[in-house]
């Protein structure tokens, strides 16, 4: 494995960490409705648990209401029950075939809790990125120990990996700030 491979591998893994962090942020509820909130809700569909998006259409009725349109007639009650029993704190209401899921307004205290949660997720993402930096540097050190690269190459690779780490952590910080602003907006 060369230094270029180590850098490329570290960069790919850091990008995956950013994507995982973005998906975690999407689960954090803000005052506005978006269908992604229901992604983690699982429905019992003929004996197997599947995401709600595989048994119904999810749409936005207005800024605070998600519409769930089941594809099969008998699924409405199961979907409604699954949403109610999820830990999202939502209370769906059926209107014929359509299930309306209103998003309750967030209290100031709940907004602060959510910002703490977002900061915690951000710290977890930063720790994962730093671990990737450590692994990449360890690979470079191993190459140096095996005399496959020079000390100058090792130093250069550590500097490049540190720059990549700084850039990725700055992106995590930016995502955290954007999400906090979104949560605190009334």
Automatic annotation (TrEMBL):
Ribosome recycling factor domain segment(s): 21-184
Superkingdom of the organism of origin: Bacteria
Gene Ontology biological-process annotations: cytoplasmic translational termination
Subcellular location: Cytoplasm
Coiled-coil annotated spans: none
GO terms for MF: ribosomal large subunit binding
Keywords, sorted A to Z: Cytoplasm, Protein biosynthesis
Principal cellular location given in the protein's record: cytoplasm
GO cellular component entries: cytosol
Keyword Protein biosynthesis set for record: yes
Classification via CDD domains: RRF (cd00520)
InterPro entries in alphabetical order: Ribosome_recyc_fac, Ribosome_recyc_fac_dom, RRF_sf
Stated family: Belongs to the RRF family.
Function: Responsible for the release of ribosomes from messenger RNA at the termination of protein biosynthesis. May increase the efficiency of translation by recycling ribosomes from one round of translation to another.
NCBIfam families: frr
Protein name per its UniProtKB record: Ribosome-recycling factor
